[in-house]
Amino acid sequence: MTFHRFLCFLVLFVFFSSNISATQDPFEDLNRKIWALNESLDDNFAKPTAEIYTNITPDFIEKGITNFFRNINELDNTANQLLQGKPMNAMNDLTRFIINTSVGLLGFIDVASKMGLERHDEDFGQTLGFWGVSKGPFLMIPLFGPSTPRSLAGRSVSSVLSGTFAIEETDVRIGVTALDALETRARYLEVETLIVGDRYSFIRDSYMQYLDFESSDGENLSDDFVDDMDDFLLD
Fold first, then answer.
1. What DSSP string runs through the chain?
2. Beta strand pairing status for 145-147 and 139-141?
3. What's this model's pTM, rounded to 2 decimal places?
4. Which of 18, 58, 116, 195 fits a 20 to 30 Å CA distance from 171?
């Protein structure tokens, strides 16, 4: 799952959802313990680092780094568009990758969007949902956060389809992965104040709703506000 879409959905969850009952969470006791561990690690390491990164990094460099990782994900997008029977979207995403990698300086500049090529977000977890595979119970994974059995399976396949998998040098691959995590955490700073009530329940419920939203290609929730918030989170 691409994390910026989840952040966008968190905002939508605040505006459009109320009295949503807890989703299936048979492992809640264990999940909450893992959540507490993740929160501790975040408060002491990830969040302070992300705040420093945001404070010292010029906006145009931040945006360039965001564009770079979005460009890497175009390979995953392309493969999953094909697996979902969407050849035109796959061609669109592959063309975006070719243009942004070349003219856009390895993706640091999103030239393709300026040319009218729409950006999509697809992963193998969404593909499994498209094929009718149930998402299963909610899981909280150490370090990685919210997930489900379907999302875990999808993550393993998408990690192979991503551009970082092709990096042969281990230290370079680890560095790129760490920067990706830092960039993602920095974007999370923009909307985390919108999380209300019990943080664990809020994240769980919105994440499970988000999976349904993505698996149906947003057919269950359509509004211009979605696109507006996507732009806000990615600019």
1. --HHHHHHHHHHHHHH--SPPPPP-TTHHHHHHHHHHHHHHIIIIIHHHHHHHHHHS-HHHHHHHHHHHHHHTHHHHHHHHHHTT-HHHHHHHHHHHHHHHHTTTTTTS-HHHHTT-------HHHHHHHTT----S-EEETTTEEE-HHHHHHHHHHHHHSGGGG---HHHHHHHHHHHHHHHHHHHTTTGGG--SSHHHHHHHHHHHHHHHHHTTTTT---HHHHHHHHHHH-
2. antiparallel
3. 0.78
4. 58
